[in-house]
Write a structure and sequence with these properties.
Layout: E1 13-15, H1 17-27, H2 29-49, E2 55-64, H3 74-81, H4 83-101, H5 103-130, E3 137-150, H6 154-221, H7 226-261, E4 269-271, H8 290-296, H9 298-318, E5 324-335, E6 347-357, H10 365-431, H11 437-472
Parallel strand pairs: 1-4
Antiparallel strand pairs: 2-3, 3-5, 5-6
Helix pairs in contact: 1-6, 2-6, 3-5, 4-5, 6-7, 6-9, 6-11, 9-10, 10-11
Length: 476
């Protein structure tokens, strides 16, 4: 891999295409976002795996109520509280005839009755107090374990969706990476093209300036007309204007390249291919390979991921028709202790069970959602088929463009030789006085066009190769 060269202070940095690519990949914010999304998808996949495992949760609660739970009614509480009074009254009525006949018994009962009544009333009150739950302040807690046994296939489908989403994020990152490389390649070759056109414009300006000087000397000597001088001066002005336009375009193109590479916009850099005379050479036209593009293009992989996601979404929705089975277990505590007479202390118990949920009727809600999801799958499949057809067309077009660019380069190289020979003969004839300045200017213009066409053809070769690599999904 080529890297940029570290130069002494004040010297320009020299960048190769590979180093520009690496800098652009490091600087591109959208690519960084795609990589972060890839990390998010990986964590969501790990989260989906946990759905297979038992989950443990703890719950604690405190509740205050205005009235406690009562196990006895108000009438029952009153009866227990006056149990002795009722008993004493009943005994007095039963023994009244005997006490009338036996004064001693009446005296004994008169002494024993109040004592017995008080004792039994106290016993009844104790019973009432014993049934007091004291549940105005309730503390409760529970640790619950839940293990899915069968969820209608929804957990399996969700895990497959998480796997597909991670692949989708990876393919999105790859698509963003290739798009970044594609943009930097275009910017790089644009700068190279304008740099060479700048040199060409400078050479053309020097040619017409020399011709202008020669013509003005001839005018002074009386062997050329002022009309010839004016025509040459117009050409000089046109050359200056062309050079200005090229300079402006080069400055803007360098700013774009710097921005893509993450460099200061006004930093001056030199590209390796600015130093070479021949930017590109004719290469063999690659063989048409549509299947390779289908296998490599991240855009197609993303569309296939979308199809797979919609299928798994259908499976998740279909699980709504299926029974769901859960294993549950845990430990619960409460205060008051419901296991020991509602005493004001903590008490608890273990429990385990199985819970099943069976959907019976939902007015077709799940069925409609499944149909809608299947429709989304059909749409995604059609989009995938259309994209394949477009990519096949794109590969064919770019393969043709590579071949066409090679042919144009061959013709441009051939035209260069003719234009240079034509200019040489025109300059020779002009110096000998047998050719007019207008003919020389025509030869110079033809030379300029031939040189410009060669630069354009060389850049077309490079860009057509980049386009083909992008169409094949092989930009590295």
């Amino acid at each position: 891999m080529a890297v940029f060269l570290a130069l002494p202070s004040g010297a320009q940095r020299i960048l190769s295409l590979d180093s520009c690519r690496q800098m652009a990949l490091s600087n591109n914010k959208q690519l960084g976002i795609s990589k972060l999304k890839q990390g998010v998808a990986a964590n969501l996949r790990k989260s989906a795996r946990t759905k297979y495992l038992p989950h443990v949760s703890a719950v604690g609660t405190y509740e205050f109520t205005s009235k406690p739970i009562s196990l006895l009614s108000s009438e029952q509480q009153a009866e227990f509280s006056h149990l002795g009074t009722a008993f004493a009254g009943s005994i007095s009525q039963s023994l009244a005839p005997m006490m009338q006949q036996d004064p001693k018994m009446a005296a004994v009962m008169g002494q024993l009755g109040p004592t017995l009544e008080t004792a039994m009333n106290g016993l009844g009150q104790k019973i009432v107090d014993a049934f007091d739950t004291d549940t105005r302040h309730v503390l409760a807690g529970s640790v619950m374990l839940t293990q899915p046994l069968f969820m209608g296939g929804s957990i399996v489908a969700l895990n497959k969706m998480a796997d597909i989403s991670e692949k989708l994020a990876e393919n999105s990152t790859e698509a963003r990476r290739q798009a970044t490389i594609y943009r930097i390649d275009q910017a790089y070759w644009q700068v190279v093209s304008l740099h060479h056109k700048k040199k060409l414009a400078e050479s053309y300006r020097d040619l017409v300036k020399k011709l202008s000087g020669d013509v003005h000397k001839m005018i002074d000597e009386g062997v050329a007309t002022k009309s010839d001088g004016l025509s040459v001066d117009v050409k000089v002005n046109e050359a200056e204007m062309t050079l200005t336009k090229v300079n402006d375009g080069l400055v803007l193109s360098r700013m774009l390249l710097n921005q893509l590479c993450g460099l200061p916009l006004n930093e001056s850099v030199t590209l390796e291919d600015e130093q070479v005379e021949n930017i590109a050479v004719v290469e063999l036209t690659p063989e048409l390979d549509v299947e390779r593009a289908v296998d490599n293009r991240p855009e197609l992989k993303m569309l296939q991921n979308t199809v797979d996601l919609t299928k798994q979404t259908t499976n998740v929705l279909r699980a709504g028709h299926m029974p769901q089975l859960l294993l549950t277990g845990g430990y619960a505590v409460s205060n008051p202790n419901v296991l020991d007479g509602f005493q004001r202390k903590f008490g608890g118990f273990w429990h385990v069970g199985v819970m099943m949920r069976v959907p019976i009727w939902n007015w077709g809600d799940v069925m409609y959602k499944v149909r809608a999801s299947k429709g989304a799958t059909s749409i995604a499949k059609l989009e995938l088929e259309e994209a394949r057809e477009l990519i096949e067309l794109q590969v064919n077009q770019n393969t043709f463009k590579v071949d066409e660019a090679n042919k144009k380069l061959v013709m441009a190289q051939s035209n260069i030789q003719r234009a240079e020979e034509n200019l040489r003969m025109a300059n020779l004839g002009f110096s000998e006085g047998v050719i007019t300045p207008a003919t020389v200017m025509e030869a110079q213009t033809a030379w300029l066009q031939a040189r410009s066409q060669k630069i354009d053809a060389e850049i077309d070769v490079k860009l057509s190769q980049v386009d083909l690599q992008k169409a094949l999904g092989t930009l590295e």
